[in-house]
Specification:
By secondary structure, the chain is mainly alpha-helical. It contains 7 helices and 3 strands, in the order ααβααββααα. It folds into 3 domains: 28 residues; 89 residues, Winged helix-like DNA-binding domain superfamily/Winged helix DNA-binding domain (Arc Repressor Mutant, subunit A); 52 residues. The protein has a 3-stranded antiparallel sheet with strand order 1-3-2. Strand 2 and strand 3 form a beta hairpin. The N and C termini lie far apart (41 Å).
Length: 180
């Protein structure tokens, strides 16, 4: 049985390799490559629900309205989405994928799928690993709180977002210093 220290080192190495893979994909294909973050995440959702209000999209993805507006402006500028007043309520803005947006979302889902990193495991091994992940996640959520709050009731996700957006030094993981 491996020592706990060895397991943790392996876990850190895995995390580092996943981050490196993410960076390489971003450097090669840009912000649309990751269907789990930023612009790629918005395109992935819109590919499944081709029309949604900006307010609902912001709420569903748990992204602040201002941040959502910035991401949508980039997508619109590049021709991936269009924003139009809702036919039901002119005060609401509907977001729709363009043909280019559909192509980018489909490319993102198929070419950049992270699931293929598990191809080295058979189905039974994948189920076992999933069970291990579930147990580790449950243990960590018990230790740090499931909702991401620290002991003072401060949402750690908000603190991380603030820290990431307020830094003057850029992240070593994003050469431009921001995500999306």
């Amino acid at each position: 049985m491996p020592e706990k220290n060895t397991l943790y080192k392996q876990f850190l190495q895995l995390e580092l390799l996943l981050r490196r893979r993410q960076i390489q994909t971003f450097m090669k294909y840009g912000p649309l490559a990751d269907p789990h973050r930023g612009q790629g995440r918005i395109l992935a959702l819109l590919s499944k629900r081709p029309e949604i209000s900006q307010k609902d999209l912001s709420s569903f993805l748990n992204i602040r309205s201002q941040s959502m507006g910035e991401l949508l402006a980039k997508l619109e500028k590049n021709g991936y989405i269009e924003r139009m007043p809702s036919e039901r309520d002119r005060r609401n803005i509907e977001i729709r994928l363009t043909d280019s947006g559909r192509q980018a979302a489909n490319m993102s889902e198929s070419e950049f799928s992270d699931e293929n990193i598990f191809n080295c495991l058979n189905e039974e091994e994948q189920k076992t690993l999933s069970n291990y992940f579930t147990r580790i996640i449950a243990e960590l959520e018990e230790q740090v709180g499931e909702n991401g709050s620290d002991f003072n009731g401060v949402d750690l996700r908000d603190r991380l977002r603030f820290h990431r957006h307020s830094r003057h030094d850029h992240s070593p993981f994003d050469p431009r210093g921001h995500s999306g």
